[in-house]
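We treat protein structure as text, and this decision shapes the records that our systems exchange. We quote a single record here, exactly as it is kept in our systems:
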Amino acid sequence: MGDIISGTIHVEPAGKNLKQETKSLSDLKKAFFIIDQHEFSIDGINNKIHFKKEAGLKTDSTTIFFMNSDGKGISNISIPSNQKSVSGQCAIPNHILTASPVSIPGNFDGDASNTQCSIDGKLIEIVAESPRQCIIFYPQDAGGFHNLNIQETNRQGCSKLVSGVTMNVSTGKLNLVKGEKTFIEVTITGLQNLPDTAFLILENLSTEIITLFPFKKVIIPLSPDSIGTGKVTKRFDVQSMRMGSFIVNVNLDLPAVQFEIPKLDKPRRLENESLHTGLSQAIKKLEADAGGAQGKEYSNMCESCQKCIRTMAGKWAESLVRKLGEELIKESVGKAIGMFMESKELLSKLKDMVDKANDAKDKADELADELEKKIRAGELQLLVFHDQLCESNGNCVVSAMIFYDPATGCVTAFVKCNGRAGACCPKAFNTAKISYCTDEYGMPKDLPHVEVISQ
């Protein structure tokens, strides 16, 4: 049996006045949507959808096609649907961006009509629902702390005190003459008590009009220990290359819900060859998912690094650190902190894997001792691929570390592409954190989760 999917497609007719908007809506009503072979007409501004996904169809994403009245495709969008399912009640994130949709993973029936969501007792809009998630629209005026509750008929609901995060973007001028300078200022509030690092991302979509400094795409890590009272203000310089208006996309990626990964019935160790092959397969899965959320995230790495990582994944010499001496373990881990954790904000990514709260690089020995204990006790396997020049681009150096937990059968791998900016990639380095759980052969069971950081 296929999943039940329900939701709302909201259309915004263009126009400078009511008459133009009415004409645009009339034209839109001649078009239609196709979702997984199901056709839906456009009846108004908000269009309800409800259908059963055919059994056997790809389930990790759903594509919505927008067709004109002649049945020709105008555009399409792929929506990921590979949310992890959770047993019991749903899971609400700690921080939610206001005026934006938010996914709440959990066990739902896919029918949004029998689900209610409220903030401090006031009902809010449910955008869509599938058996693995409910997507709500968090209102603009819900900044600060509020009680969020979601309840589906005859199912266990969930509630949580959440922090509504507001993000305000302002600029000096939008229309510039050649050579004129302006700025973009981003102010974020409500970040206090972050459970993990958030990322502020700016991308210049008008590269022919302006230059965004320092890069075309800027990624700013916002770690829990760097935000103080929860308010952050960042200003970015802009200079025009020719007259015209410009667009800069501004996004805030907040920490997702952290699921507790269940332990296996008994620990399952894997050979280094399985871990190596599994990482290669995980990278292939990410590349194959180019249209999905994770594939797009992986595509944030520059093309040279993607090509090098793909090539080197099949050529690295395997070396299990657990088979080597303590001094080499310390040396490798100390080097790893230098390789991957070049700022305090990124160190939290490594802390998650070793359950050790270290806040600075100078604690490399303490971290190494903790790793060594886990490795010797069989609680952790660590596979290292040392720096190696890429065969397809001699200006790139590729390296990787794979952390494997035998108790859960899950992997967290850091893959780094390093090299001279410009000759290898526009940025100094690209690091991908790839997480997935494995089957008995070490292959990823589902689409891996990836976080890509470019600096």
Notes: The chain has three domains: 4-80, 88-104+137-260, 272-454. Residues 272-454 form one domain.
